[in-house]
Specification:
The protein is mainly α and 453 residues long. It is built from 17 helices and no strands. It has one domain: Up-down Bundle (Growth Hormone, Chain: A), CATH 1.20.1250. The longest helix is centred in the N-terminal third of the chain and has 55 residues.
């Protein structure tokens, strides 16, 4: 009981940062809406075309964001990041209403997928924007870890709330009602995002021309690959995200075969419930001297439960296994993103996270596209068992470089990030690796210093 109180106190202290609290509201709304729309669209798609249609929903939901993310994310380094988040929420409110109209009109699957693709393109900048904005709002390394833990807690709550909301509405009302509810939810997210205030001043347009100017939006990719540490973290994330895409399809197929439409939402909600527990655990652990090893532990907890479901493909077993998987997801997110926040330079953060989320979306889309093929080729159980084994074993193969990352980041605590030294220009604000000496933000003067491009 005392341990729980400590964790809740940590969350309470973190959320006393009012701007950070608004950011978490925006993130929670986005996560709830994202998972709610996934469940609603997957159920509608399954009725129209079975498992292959569900796989198409997973691909189209992510592919435009994957393609446009690196190009669009330069907006998060050039424009107000809170404004970008608010506009994205507003765009998805409109898309949700459009999907409602299409469902009511009995539109074919292809038309629904076009609407979904437009929404995916509109949302390409959200995750890069919120990932880049969070380090601008924290005031110390410990608050960075705590903020990531709270973000994981909020994400887990969204994973519970989104599928639960969609499942409840789908069980009682026609699917169109679910999309109206999601539109209202995204409108709330737009208001919360627009209210965020930050000292961040967007960079001036670069004084380059020709091919160098065209390459500006793509500078996030070199930032991810500039050193071995970021390469290892990103690689493990990508494998986990391929598994996520595969699981999105497999769980819908399993649920509809065993328990109907309501079971699909319940399975994803079980994963979210485990994520809540995992986020609470990370709030109590704190610190970041062993972030890479905690990150690896989370990956193992992602893969092993999938193997359990493959061995015992029954709903009661799946609920427990997915709760454990959700716990692993929370641990991976908290410590994985803490590592990326410490390793990436601030003035390239938007583009770097744009490149990361582009790779992430492509990985989830690949998993969603691969799932029907694997199920057809080897069956549902073997598809789950093989993919789970890959993710459970990969951290063991990467154990030595992960330990090296912990040694490097511990030694660099309170200094500039390793990636910053490789940036084309030094950032005007410190990267999130070392905000220890940064005082509580003061009112911004009329003329603010701009970050370089």
């Amino acid at each position: 009981m005392a341990g729980l109180q400590v964790r809740l106190n940590t969350a309470r202290v973190t959320l006393r940062n009012r701007e950070l609290a608004k950011l978490q509201v925006s993130w929670g709304v986005w996560t709830t809406g994202e998972w709610g729309s996934l469940i609603a669209l997957s159920v509608v798609a399954f009725e129209l075309g079975g498992a292959p249609a569900v796989g198409l929903v997973g691909v189209v939901r992510l592919l435009p964001a994957a393609a446009l993310g690196p190009l669009a994310s330069i907006v998060t380094d050039r424009r107000s990041r809170p404004g970008v988040l608010g506009a994205t929420h507003a765009g998805w409110a409109v898309v949700s209403l459009a999907l409602c109209g299409l469902v009511l009109a009995g539109a074919p699957l292809a038309v629904l997928l076009v609407g979904l693709g437009i929404g995916s393109a509109a949302g390409a900048v959200f995750k890069p924007g919120i990932s880049a904005l969070l380090p601008q709002l924290v005031r110390s390394p410990s608050e960075l870890v705590a903020a990531n833990a709270v973000s994981s807690l909020v994400e887990a709550a969204g994973i519970v709330a989104g599928p639960a909301l969609a499942g409840l509405l789908l069980a009682v009302f026609p699917p169109a009602v679910t999309f109206v509810a999601l539109a209202v939810l995204f409108a709330v997210g737009a208001a919360a995002s627009a209210a965020i205030r930050t000292n961040y001043q967007p960079a001036r347009s670069p004084s380059v021309s020709g091919l160098l100017l065209l390459a500006e939006p793509l500078r996030g990719f070199p930032a991810l690959l500039v050193n071995a540490a970021t390469r290892v973290v990103v690689a493990l994330f990508v494998v986990q995200l391929v598994m996520r895409g595969l699981l999105n399809v497999v769980l819908v197929v399993l649920a509809l075969a065993e328990g109907g439409e309501g079971a699909a939402g319940a399975l994803f909600a079980a994963m979210g419930a485990g994520g809540l527990v995992g986020a609470l655990i990370t709030l109590g652990v704190g610190g970041s001297s062993r972030s890479a090893r905690w990150f690896a532990f989370g990956a193992v907890l992602w893969g092993a439960p999938v193997i359990v479901i493959a061995v015992w493909p029954e709903l009661p077993v799946a609920f427990v296994a997915l709760a454990a998987l959700g716990l692993g997801n929370a641990v991976m997110d908290v410590y994985g993103f803490t590592l990326l926040h410490r390793l990436l330079p601030d003035h390239l953060a938007g583009r770097a996270f744009g490149a990361f989320w582009s790779c992430a979306a492509a990985a989830v889309a690949a998993g969603s596209a691969l799932a029907p093929l694997l199920i057809e080729a080897v069956g549902l159980r073997w598809a789950m068992g093989l993919s789970g084994a890959v993710l459970a074993l990969l951290p063991l193969l990467l154990w030595r470089p992960l330990r090296t990352i912990d040694e490097q980041t511990s030694a660099a605590a309170g200094t500039l990030s390793p990636a910053a030294s490789h940036a084309a220009a030094a950032p005007a604000t410190r990267p999130a690796a070392a905000p220890a000496a940064r005082a509580r933000p003061r009112p911004v003067p009329a003329r603010r210093r701009r970050a370089p491009s």
